[in-house]
Amino acid sequence: MALVYHQHEVVIVGAGGAGLMAALALRGRDVAVLSKLHPVRSHTGAAQGGIGAALGNMEEDHWEWHMFDTVKGSDYLADQDAVEILAREAVETVMDLEHWGLPFSRTPEGKIAQRKFGGHTKEYGKEAVRRSCYAADRTGHMILQTCYQQGIRHQVKYYNEYMVVELLVESGRTAGVVAVSIADGQLHVFHAKAVLFATGGFGRMYEVTSNAHALTGDGVAVAWQAGVPIEDMEFFQFHPTGIYRLGILITEGARGEGGKLLNGKGERFMERYAPSMLDLAPRDIISRCIYRELREGRGIHGQGYVHLDLTHLGAKVIHEKLPDITDFVRTYLGIDPVKEPIPVQPTAHYAMGGIPTDMWGRVVVDEKNKILPGFYAAGECACVSVHGANRLGTNSLVDILVFGRRAGRDIARYVGENEYPPLAPHAGEATGERLARLREGRNGSGGRAESVADLRETLQREMMEKASVFRTSGLLAQMSEKLFELRQRFQNVVIQDRSTVFNTDLMEALELGFLLDVAEATVAAALARSESRGAHFREDFPQRDDQNWLKHSLAYRGADGKIEFKYKPVTITRFEPKERKY
Ligand SMILES: Cc1cc2nc3c(=O)[nH]c(=O)nc-3n(C[C@H](O)[C@H](O)[C@H](O)COP(=O)(O)OP(=O)(O)OC[C@H]3O[C@@H](n4cnc5c(N)ncnc54)[C@H](O)[C@@H]3O)c2cc1C
Fold this sequence. Notes:
This protein is an alpha/beta fold. Helix content is 34%, strand content 21%. Among the domains are: 253-348, Flavocytochrome C3, Chain A, domain 1, CATH 3.90.700; 429-542, Methane Monooxygenase Hydroxylase, Chain G, domain 1. It has 16 helices and 22 strands. Strands 1, 2, 6, 7, 8, 9, 16 and 17 form an 8-stranded mixed beta sheet that branches.
């Protein structure tokens, strides 16, 4: 099949909050937004609880307090210069959303309403503060609709259901991407001066996850394959309250409104672990506490879950402030949260790690922050790093919009100053051949034919057992061997659908390859880091070790497939690392 060529000054890959915000910052330029989903199906639309900004609408608040909470929440691994930008620019970003028409929930006098969220405090840790701006429990949905509409208004060019599979780098400059059109299987080469990856997270490497099916780490893996390192992959956040077994998220906003966690004895167990913040301690801490309760036999009826109790909030609060999650619980569990507690367990939720960038979204490729010209990343696939070892709730929506916009602004500068890079005459052809082999069943080395679903299920189950909330060197080493085996078997994957039209079999095979990449980086980084910090908890090294590990990891894929690490220092400006107490 012949390739189809396009040329745009800027190619943005991903149409969640980060990609759309960058496109808006590039208004008036020649920008193409490629997305494997229709834009409003991006995972940003699933965000429930809110976006954090120190507006001070309900009580006194300051961006400095927001900055402090974010740094402490990150277990002191976040880069503080970047966190300062996040906390400062959050305020103007929320005001922009309001001016674009986002229907926030309101106070009686008409200001944007705010509620409590995990780890967000006043006066540097004194008590919980109302900082999360929300639109009931559909904040992300409203953000996505608002930004998409603004994009249409400003004539952004969308290529919907285009799946990017390769990043083109020519003579040390980014030259574009290769993408498959899902509708007809056609391969397209996009020649560009600048490329922004905003492809979201990769929670799908775990069995129980809050993440949509499409979150398979494509951008991170594609960048890695192009020689870019990936940062801090050992830090993957588990959110404490996923619906038992299903993983579907029950927003932390439910606890922000006063919901309580209870164990099988009916105890509010967080009183023992975080006497001051209780159920609003950060997620890494609560997830570990839930697992401790379960391990010690205090699950509900001895089973693998605890209860999230909202019954004391009353029907009015539940229906007005948490309508969507109420619906989920009724639909998926047949339980009415107004009358009964909800069975919950920790669910794989958020990737703190990703493609390393500076504060303008420019991708950096070594520990000295050397830039790869023309390549940018923003949103969950990127690592600035504002979340360090553990992200606070409501801070991702801030991150994607603040840094999406900053990336857009710097791209505008870059494309104004630079000509198109050269494009190799055979760009995309090798990828075309690889895809054709897969589709036509010519894949493999003649071994037993493997199915994508089998391999994916094994990967997700094993990652859950061996590389999730609690880790040990033994389990991680076993996982590493498992991944080696899965990688071998992946060479023999055969798909059933031979057609070119909406070939979801082919997409899933490609996504499985990406998941294997990000899982390999996660496990290798977790094995290397012999300390416990934020979401990375090593039972064999239970203490944080600032002496040796107050640093970011950069994972490189060597030519022989082996993973190697370099490390870079954490930027500390205002807050020296301290013990984290809540
Ligand atoms: C259930 C849930 C609730 C959440 N609630 C909150 C909350 O209340 N507050 C908060 O701050 N955070 C929340 N988060 C986290 C936050 O929503 C996400 O981290 C954030 O929205 C990610 O935005 P993004 O723009 O980086 O990516 P996404 O919104 O995930 O978008 C990724 C985009 O990349 C595209 N893409 C991916 N791969 C490819 C490819 N190969 N080719 C082309 N396109 C591709 C997709 O089509 C999509 O458009 C929540 C997350 C979940 C899962």
